[in-house]
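fyi for ur records
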Amino acid sequence: MWDRPAALLWVANLLYALAAVLLLYAVLFVVVHLPIFPLREIKVNGELQHVTREQLKLIVSRHLQGNFFTLDLEKTRDAFEKLPWIRNVSIRRRWPDRLEVSVEEHRELARWGNIALVNTYGELFHAASDRDLPVFYGPGDGVKEVAEYFKVYGELLQPTGLHVSQVALSPRRAWQIGTDSGMVIELGRERVQERLKKFAGVYRQTLGALSVQVRYADLRYPNGFAVRRPQGQQEQGARKAS
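which gave:
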């Protein structure tokens, strides 16, 4: 190759180009890491009801390391998402010295037993709430399903004036709900919404007109439902729901 000037010239040009690229990279690396691009403003967007400004300031002081260019956005986002009430965080750089943090909090819908809270997306999260919330029970893979049907059952019960305070889904996919009046309603596995709609349609003329409070209603009958009085005596005689 030494007797081929064209090849030598090509190799020399390639080496010069590589050297220039490495030099440029080194210069950029040094410039970027110089303390001349500090983050002067951090703006937090979002409706914050549970996350406090003090918690956010603590995250900023502990985890926002680096300048406008060197800040690790992924690690910063992870630090914010470790706060109990934060569901999602997005972070963007805004030239020349600003960082925008958009925060989405969990909105509690119910309690999952005494283990965790359920948000409006049907997701579990661990936080403390002093609100009087409905309680859900079910298998581990049924959180979202229970959250969805909680809303459905609540709408179906509207004509009765009752509100759903508890929803339970068994491993065999049988449903049971409790109301704010203390009544437990057994729905079963089949034609669940149809049964509850019929029950709601006749509630005011039947159970709602009774002088005693009914604690239990079993809707798993083809043409009606059975109820039980508070004393535990069963009031069989199926009441027609049509």
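Confidence is low (pLDDT under 50) at residues 25-34, 232-242. thats all i got for now
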